[in-house]
């Protein structure tokens, strides 16, 4: 069974043979494409610019952010990207690492995606 995990893109890469998917709308500062070693960048899967700016990585807003983000995942480009993510998971026997750039390792969109998938 495929295991889903999250990790900051800035953390040292582990050689675990899994599929690496960046789930942020914006490319992380200071990370080259070579360093990232991504299999996919599903940028449409990230929260909308409006939601991202409103949340501003403020922990006290996370519960609201989570609900709003889940609603966004049911619409438009985000829904299509979420379907693509589910297809990737279904078609592999490798572990999946959802990569994000936020400093907060618990309150971010990758953690919401991990929860929704599981």
What is the residue-mean pLDDT, rounded to a whole number? 94
- Shape descriptor reads globular
Strand content: 5-15%
Element pattern in H and E = EEHEHHHEH
How far do the termini sit from each other? 12 Å
- Report on the biggest sheet: 4 strands, parallel
Backbone structural class: alpha/beta
InterPro entries: YeaO-like
Pfam families: DUF488-N3i
Which helices and strands occur, and which strands form pairs?
Elements: E1 4-8, E2 19-22, H1 33-36, E3 40-41, H2 49-55, H3 62-72, H4 76-90, E4 96-100, H5 109-117
Parallel strand pairs: 1-4, 2-3, 2-4
Explain what you see.
The chain has 118 residues and is an alpha/beta fold. The protein is 39% helix and 14% strand. It has five helices and four strands. It has helices at residues 33-36, 49-55, 62-72, 76-90, 109-117, and strands at 4-8, 19-22, 40-41, 96-100. A four-stranded parallel sheet has the order 1-4-2-3, covered by helices on one side. Strand 2, helix 1 and strand 3 (40-41) form a beta-alpha-beta unit. The mean pLDDT is 94.
Short précis:
The chain is an alpha/beta fold and 118 residues long. The chain contains five helices and four strands.
């Amino acid at each position: 069974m495929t295991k889903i995990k999250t990790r900051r893109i800035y953390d040292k890469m582990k050689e675990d043979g899994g599929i690496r998917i960046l789930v942020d709308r914006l490319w992380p500062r200071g990370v080259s494409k070579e360093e990232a070693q991504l299999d996919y960048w599903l940028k449409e899967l990230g929260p909308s610019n409006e939601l991202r700016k409103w949340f501003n990585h403020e922990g006290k807003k996370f519960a609201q952010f989570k609900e709003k983000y889940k609603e966004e995942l049911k619409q438009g480009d985000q829904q299509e990207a979420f379907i693509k993510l589910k297809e990737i998971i279904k078609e592999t026997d490798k572990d999946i690492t959802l990569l994000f750039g936020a400093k907060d390792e618990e309150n971010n969109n990758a953690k919401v995606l991990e929860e929704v998938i599981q």
